[in-house]
Amino acid sequence: MPRKSEESGGFKRSVLGLNAANFLQAEMVGVVLPVLNSYLKDAGWRYDSIGVATALAGLGTLLFQAPAGILTDRLSQRRALFAVAAVLTGVCFTLIPLVHHRTVPIDSLLFVAGAAQSLFAPLLAALALALVGHQRLNRTVGTNQGWNHAGNIGAALGAMALVSTYGVSSIFYAVGLSSAFATFSVFLIRDKDLDERRATGLEEGKEDERPVPWSTLLTDRTILFLFISIFAFHLANAPILPAVALYVKRLHGSDDLMTATVLTAQIVMVPVALLAGRGCDAWGRKAMMAIAFWVLPLRIFSYALVHTPQAVVWLQSLDGIGAGIYGVVVVALAADLTRGKGHFNSLMGLFATALAIGGVAGPLISGFFIQHLGFQETFYAFAALAAFGAIVFTIFVPETKPLAGATLAARPQVGITG
Fold first, then answer.
1. How far is Cα 130 from Cα 141, in angstroms, rounded to an integer?
2. φ/ψ (deg, to 5) at 283
3. By the 8 A CB rule, do 27 and 178 touch?
4. Of 80-84, 253-257, 290-294, 356-360, which range is least confident?
5. How far apart, in Å, are the Cα atoms of 417 and each of 114, 204, 210, 216?
6. What is the pTM of this model?
7. How confident is the model at residue 296 (pLDDT cuts 50, 70, 90)?
8. Rg (Cα) of the chain, in Å, rounded?
9. How far apart are CA 222 and CA 337, in angstroms?
10. What is the Cα–Cα distance from 83 to 179, expressed in whole angstroms?
11. What pLDDT sits at residue 204?
């Protein structure tokens, strides 16, 4: 049953604030990496040096991702924490064009920005769960992700206009402006509409419920295999968008086509995210996530078969299917696996760590491969890695959706060993 506050206009303002925070968070970082790679290449950087710079942003996220999840579980001031992360991200990217292509300052700024961004995923998921609870989480996250991808579309369209008028460096100033708006939007969420216990995975109305020991989650076979498959998924996926942007440039595509690699995928992600939230409830989590996992190797392999920048951009639409589903279903899986146990945000941080490891290692490997082997061989290698992740998920990760009408006590404890 909805609380009284959920029936009021004030609650609608909180929902609007959450959607706006997702939209503007995407506006901040949606096109930065492809634009950054092009910006550094135009400044004379080598492909492998560009890979190092991109990897440092991922390293900042990697090192702070697990602490970010734990911090989100333990602190109740989640809106203020989101605001701090947004401002710090905006400042870092705004400074990049002001340091005149110098390696150490740019690498340092990217590392700090990556660390700040580690807070976004667990904080936005926690705010959604605190606001609506488990029963309405999937559709709410689907809507949130729809707004997030719409933000990426806005960022891509804005980037195309800014690049053609003011040059590539203008994108970094736009990130600073978006961060200011994101800071304001998160405070539209009213504190009284948030259930802080519910935000950690514990259930509303069960005041005697306490988080289980961390060892219970860390010995869960489902979590282990899910972590492995997510790691392989993102190790293959993380470097592909920047690599595709460079491939478009290699095929003599324009800056607008390079920016369109982001836009094409994001247009597809909006309806896919909305459908994924409903699909989680109707068909189950595993069926939806399996689609995301198997689309990825098909997409990466296909890049090696095309030789025009326009064809590469059109293939990016497949990224919209995989990423649109993943962003919704990973939250549903984490919520299922921690419901009544706690540590929801810490588990989100663990899954995001798998993503971040891919964000660090992937660009390093792809930068080396592209520099020394070429684009086609790079695409073949990462398609094989993506297929491995899909196989692990399909074979070893069971369905986590609770049985209809089952109470928490009656539900099987999915994947728990011992």
1. 12
2. -110, -15
3. yes
4. 253-257
5. 35, 26, 20, 8
6. 0.81
7. very high
8. 20
9. 9
10. 8
11. 67
Distance separating alpha carbons of residues 292 and 287, to the nearest angstrom: 9
CA 339 to chain centre: 22
Torsion of CA 241, 244, 246, 252, to 10 degrees: -150
CB 68 within 8 A of CB 122: yes
Encode pLDDT of 90-144 as tens digits: 999 999 888 877 788 888 999 999 899 999 989 999 999 999 988 899 999 999 9
C-alpha 271/C-alpha 142 separation (Å) is: 9
Residue in this structure with the two tokens 């939209």, named with its chain if needed: 23
Rounded distance, CA 165 to CA 159, Å? 10
Domain boundaries, the chain: 9-396
**Which range has highest mean pLDDT (270-274, 354-358, 371-375)?**
270-274
What 3 state SS string does the chain have? CCCHHHHCHHHHHHHHHHHHHHHHHHHHHCCHHHHHHHHHHHCCCCHHHHHHHHHHHHHHHHHHHHHHHHHHHHCCCHHHHHHHHHHHHHHHHHHHHHCCCCHHHHHHHHHHHHHHHCCHHHHHHHHHHHHHCCCCHHHHHHHHHHHHHHHHHHHHHHHHHHHHHHCCCHHHHHHHHHHHHHHHHHCCCCHHHCCCCHHHCCCCCCCCCCCCCHHHHHCCHHHHHHHHHHHHHHHHHCCHHHHHHHHHHHCCCCHHHHHHHHHHHHHHHHHHHHHHHHHHHHHCHHHHHHHHHHHHHHHHHHHCCCCCHHHHHHHCHHHHHHHHHHHHHHHHHHHHHHCCCCCHHHHHHHHHHHHHHHHHHHHHHHHHHHHHCCHHHHHHHHHHHHHHHHHHHHHHCCCCCCCCCCCCCCCCCCCCCC
Is domain 9-396 annotated with CATH 3.40.190.10?
A: no
Asked whether the CA dihedral 280, 283, 285, 288 is positive or negative, the reply is negative
240, 386 contact by CB (below 8 A): no
Angle between helices 285-303 and 255-283 (to 10 degrees): 160
How would you classify residue 218: left for phi > 0, otherwise alpha for psi between -120 and 50, otherwise beta? alpha
Q: Which two tokens stand for residue 381?
A: 């290698």
320 is written with which tokens?
């919209």
